[in-house]
Structures are given as structure tokens and as C-alpha cells.
Amino acid sequence: MGPIYLDNAATSFPKPPAVAEAMAHYLNDVGASINRGVYASAQSAGLTTLLLREALCGLFRHTEATHCILTPGNTAGLNMAIRGWLRSGDHCLVSSMEHNAVMRPLQDLAKQGVLFDRIPCDSAGRMDPADIIPLIRPNTKLLVMAHGSNVGGAVQDAAAVGRICRERGIPFVLDAAQTAGHWDIDFEGWGLAALSVPGHKGLMGPGGIGALLLSQDFARGLSPILTGGTGSASDSEVQPEYMPDKFESGTANLPGIYGLKAAVDFILETGVDRLREHETALTGRFLDGIRDVPNVRLAGPWELEDRAGVISLDFQNIDNAEASFLLEERWGIMTRCGLHCAPNAHKTLGTFPQGTVRFSPGWFTTEAEIDAAVGAVRELAAK
Hints:
Layout: E1 4-5, H1 17-30, H2 40-60, E2 68-71, H3 74-83, E3 91-95, H4 100-110, E4 115-119, E5 140-146, H5 158-168, E6 172-175, E7 194-198, E8 210-214, H6 216-221, H7 254-270, H8 272-290, E9 296-299, E10 311-315, H9 320-331, E11 333-334, E12 336-338, H10 343-349, E13 356-359, H11 367-381
Helix pairs in contact: 1-7, 2-7, 3-4, 8-11, 9-11
């Protein structure tokens, strides 16, 4: 068996072949920018961009293609939503499982008078939405939450959180880095103000491209954190207020747009339910294989319900960094070791500061590869 890639929570690999083909087509045959010319290749690129917005809206049940902002990635999208909304004196709620893409902007804003509280999660990373209510203040202006944990895999009840926020008039921003593409996400039904997704993880597109989907009300009150040329309203030095131009300054990442469009088409053709079923089956096979293994602690839930395909192990008999190194050196298994840019999530799970070894299968992962990983874990645990 060749190398085994089990780091899809970091970035998906391999990609559907159509992704590279679409990017090569743009680079070799199109080459034009959008909103900058009326010639045929520019119009073709503009149409592909519009079709991507519409495909993402269809995938996430959003109704306004103009409010699907194409971003450089999920970190950029979350910064746009957080920094563009919160002001000094505002209060924000987050879960205790957030990635630094949320926490570092908030820590920066705390220096400017923004306040935040963490909604507690249990030792498996699960949050009870009822715990939100006592933390709400008169000045609570935003709730930001990771849909699925990039450390332990627990998936939160976004629908319940959305109901609480909607009843109290609090905008709800969902970080779907670990669920977009292989979990059903309902923008309108969950009452989201914003949904941020990366293109290169579950959506199986290239790096350097993502999307931030916005409600009309949230977009209206959100300030852009980057302004500049849009190819529109060029008679004015003031940033346009209309969408999506308000939040899309500079030259678009067209190779990324073409690649992501091909990836989203692949997901829509394959079916989100089928993608999730595959992920759940592989996750269950892995967990069943290690359930009785000594010297290994699972950081995250054992149950498959409301669980993404992110499996973190804390080896008790060997340093986790050494375990991750040996997994590749001896078995060709690629994993992610460390704190996964989410120190408070590890504190919640009881794996700080040592971190964990994270295994994350993807669409192209096979049962044989999962079995090989389980066998390797068993050998390392017996070391």
C-alpha cells in the first residue's frame, strides 16, 4: 500500500480531477479578470464566477447570490465578519472549542474594548445550547461558533443555537470549516447572519479561495475591512455599498474560482448525504478498531451521531509528536500532530499542552487505509 493521507481536516487530498482541469483551463485558455473588460474571455470568467456563487447558495440554502462573497479563505471570511461588525463596548459569545481564526481576531479586538465570553462545552467538546442564555448581556452583539470541531470532531446543534439567537436579535456567525461540503447546512433555516467556509477542505477545491455568505441585514450593517478597486463605480473614490462589490476589492482569484466551481459541481453531483455517509462509515470503522486499545485516549465523542470525521488520539505511552512521526516513517500514514490552532479546544478536551495526533479521512479514503491506520495505532500503543 502506498502513502496514506489522513489529514483532510487540514486540507483535502486528492482533489477531484476536474478541479485541476478547470484551473488549467482558466490559466491556459481564459486568463482574463472579471469586472474589468467586456471582451468574451472576461465575460466568460464573470459567468463562471456568478455560477459559483449560485452553486454555493444552492448547496447552503441561501437565496441571494449577490450576498455570497468570495474570500481568500475561511480565516479571511471570519475576520471580515468579526472585525467588520464588533465595536468597542460590544460583547461577543463563542464556544470553548473555537479555532484561532476566531479567537485571535477577538483577542485583538479585546485590546480595543470588545468583550467576549466562552460558552462551555463538555469533555467531548459538545455544547448545550441552553448554556448560551445565561451569558447573554444587553450589549451582546454577535455569536460566533464552529459548527464542527477541528480537534475532536463534535458537531454542534446550529439549528438550536440559531433559534436562540433569532429570538434575541443576536446575529449568528457559523464557521463551517469542518462540515461544509459533507454536512447539510441550512443558512435560511438556521437563521444565520453569516456563514464562512474554506474552499480547500470538505468542498475539495484549491487553497486560497473561500466564501462568506451574508444575510441582507447583516451585510447592510457590516463594514468592509479591506477597500479598493472593484472595477465598478470607478468615478468615485468611495467604496460601493452594493453587493458583492462592497466586500470584494482587488483582483479576484480566478484560478481558485474555476477550481472551486468544479469542486462544488462534484459535490452536488455526488450528493452531500452520500459524502457524509462515507465519512461516518470510515469514522465508525476507525473508532471500532481502537475501542479496546490500551495507552490511547480519544479526545472527542465516541458516538457517531453529531460527529465529523476528525479523530484525535492522545498516546499515553509515547510522545504524540513521536507517534505522528513514526506513523509516516513506518507506515506512510500522514496525520496532524499538535494543538491544531485551537488551544482552548484542547483545554476543554483535556489535551493541553501535549496536544493530540489527528486522523481525518476524506472522500477518497478507503476502508483498507483505515484498517492500516488502526493496525499502526495498535502497534504504537503496544510500544
